[in-house]
Specification:
This protein has 45 residues and is mainly alpha-helical. It is built from 1 helix and no strands. It has one helix at residues 2-44. The termini are far apart.
Length: 45
Amino acid sequence: MSTKRKPPTLQQKKEEVNKKALIWIGSSLVVVVIVFTILLLWSRS
């Protein structure tokens, strides 16, 4: 029984890690886009 209960917990942990990774990647991409737009606007002015 214990061997059957272990895989779901491992999958849940992996899903949590994936969610955190997606959040970090998404936030970093947003920051990069904001920085690029600021640099473009600053260089134009």
